[in-house]
Amino acid sequence: MTGYRQILAVPGMAPLLAVSFLARIAITADVMALTLYVVLGLELSYAAAGGVAAALTAGLALGGSLLGRVLDRRGLRPVLLLTVAAQAVFWLSVPVLPYGALVGAALVAGLLMVPAQPVTRQAIAAMTTARQRRAAFALEAVQGELSYMVGPAVVILCAARLPPGAVAWGLGAAIVAGGTGIALLDPPLRAEGGSDLGPGTGAEARTGRAAERPPRREWLGARMIAVLTMACGTTMLLGGVDLALVATLEAAGQVSWASVVVAVLGVASVVGGLIHGALSRSLPTWSLLGLLGLVTIPAGLAHQWPWLCVAVACTGFFAAPTLSAVTDAVSRLAPAGVRGEATGLQSAAQSAGLALGSPLVGVAVDVSAPAGGFAAAGLAGLAAALTGRLLSRHRPSPGPSAPAGHQSGTGVRGPGPLPPGSRSPTA
């Protein structure tokens, strides 16, 4: 745990993780809050609630890259001021909007969601050295898992005791507070002078305007597409697993145990993420995703909640490490001047995966059995891992315009104590 203590001792790191955790708890619960408001407040169907959730998710997927480009060009505080204001207006107006207007407003709110996750990832890359980043991104992945465990559960508990409109206001207040806190901390988004070689704290690091912005064709190549494909595949698998385990427990008449199984999944992911971050070397990203897919497929053989806990613990153990490896890969492949756009693309890919995972597994469950849902989720992960592996084998020819320090991210192995030029974030 010495590595984690060193990460938390980096100036500004602990406050950043704490404030971003508040924002991410609220953001992960936004779909649940809107679903409960539509069903309980407007007294409409779950299908209608799904329409609002789909609009918000579509906005998140579309807005990630857009906000990332603005972060690269304008800096942190203008983006946070814009998104915090947009979230305040949206959540205050939720209780007074008719359903049709709520769908449109949810799309805009998704487009202008406070970018807590991308900003945290960029700041981690800027505030840590290359040797610290695996542990730092492991903490970020664990933070994400904890937010998914806490956020929706808190909203459900509040909805049982408070009016749906009050729950929406409370959630909006938490998002606004988290975004405002990050703006006040104003963490650097890249190392001083735009370098990727170590942490920086200067004004250029905070605004990002001094860093050179290379053409997209120089960094959005086969290797970055491989990483984004694996990011999408990972969340597609995890989103599908949530639905598959509920379907399995429903078929067994044990739905009341769903919260226990989900908790085991989350705890196993936290443990796996912490272990991964403490290692001196990492497996290739495609291997981690492949293992995640392989251990997920046989989970469908478990028909009782105790055995399902064992099965999903295996899935969870590889979840946070895979997410952490994907984030590390993006940070290493993206030049400093476009890291905001790159992390935005990663968030968009992961949002798309979550949106696709549940329908894919739902179809598999409907046409076969709950076990088919786990198989579909696992196979989706394996397909993404294989695609990532094939794309990551492409070796671009070094050119004079390649930013210094980035050819070291084009090898075939994961980051570790290897000679310069042999590290690969996609591996």
From TrEMBL:
InterPro entries, per database record: MFS (IPR011701), MFS_trans_sf (IPR036259)
Region (Disordered): 391-427
Keywords carried by this UniProt record: Membrane, Transmembrane, Transmembrane helix
TM region positions: 46-68, 99-116, 166-185, 225-249, 255-275, 282-299, 371-391
Keyword Transcription: no
Pfam families: MFS_1 (PF07690)
Residue stretches of biased makeup (Pro residues): 416-427
Highest taxon listed in the record's lineage: Bacteria
The protein's name in its UniProt record: MFS transporter
Source lineage: Bacteria, Bacillati, Actinomycetota, Actinomycetes, Kitasatosporales
